[in-house]
Fold these 3 entries.
Entry 1:
Amino acid sequence: MQGMKQKESSDDFSKYKPWSPRDRFVAFLRVVSMAFLLRGLHFWIVILSVSEPVASGQVNGALLRVSALFGVLHFIAGVGLWLTAPWGMVMWAVTAILEILASIFYTDILSYSSFVGIFHLATIILFGVLWFFMRRDEMGTD
């Protein structure tokens, strides 16, 4: 048995780096995805709620239309981010930018806190940083 070479396995995990930049990037996308799915669920709770103001027609119709738009966009972006699909990242950016613009220009309809805008800007910046490090690692440059 001394002269026999051990068969090299194709499942060699010695080259795998735990928490590589790609792993961090995917984890970030999954966390943002969960946040977007929860936010989309919040919009649909607003739309489908049977509370007294909604049932009596005292709620602004524009608020319901905007909530429906963002409810759909948040779900699409959340699923796309979870799958790490390029279209999910595009939908996420479009949704974030639209929500920031809506919170700036439609303050009479939407009562957003500044947290929403700060969250979107911070996640967009963090996305860029993590994407840069992931691409740098994939190219093999230090």
Note: DSSP finds five helices and no strands in the chain.
Entry 2:
Amino acid sequence: MDFKQVLEFMGRQLDSSLKPVIFFLEGPLGAGKTYLSRAFLESLGTKQNVVSPTFIISREIDTLAGKAYHLDFYRLREPMQENIEAILGQVNFWEILQTADIVLIEWGDLLYDYLKNQGFNLPMFKVVIHTKKDKRDYKVIH
């Protein structure tokens, strides 16, 4: 998939009656996870400045499609390996799911696997960004 196709795919998933729809964005540093998040949220009409929440972990963003949360677990990858439940509690993950319509998670590969193994029953999609020189390719895993 190219950039436009992945944005269109993400938008179509918002038609789900189950909320929130969760997108896990995966790729190396500099792959464009925050760029993709910004473009997607702007396509949903946000007027807020979308920047990486690396240091604050989560950011709430209003869109025309509802309330979105943009999370970045980069700094939590090692602690999540030790005790994922404790980390989820510390970042209010379960509370976020109660109020969100859309959740975008950067560096959430451990959480994706954990939720899948727990039989989590909300729409979840992993968007993997592959980089080759100046080109990006996107793959979606459901």
Note: Strands lie at 21-26, 58-63, 66-72, 102-106, 124-132, 135-141.
Entry 3:
Amino acid sequence: MESNQKYNALVIDDEKQMVDMLHDFLEKVNIKVTGVKDGVNALQILKKQKFDLILLDLNLPLMNGEHVMNILKGRNESTPVIVVSAFLTHERILELSKLGVKEFLAKPFEMGSLYDTVNKVCPIEYEKK
């Protein structure tokens, strides 16, 4: 991928501070971000636009993250998904893995963990700005 090209990520989280923090970090690693606060709007956007990466919270208004994953699986959506949540249990991780989630990141997290997790899905290089 040329340096002037970007990956596109969809961040789905109802906490504005989390969306802003993920946006700031992802922009520094050359990933363009679209942020939404609920699963319903996310699914509408995903019908219209392709993304290289989805970061998904589980506890969302209108439609939770697990329901979003069920719908994406039904659509044969191939975009890699990273679940970012404070509510990860072993059972939830197993169920979400069956639905196609590629990686998991437990809140709260360190920036290094975020970098490593995103890098597994989309090779990135940190740009100091």
Note: The chain has a mean pLDDT of 91.
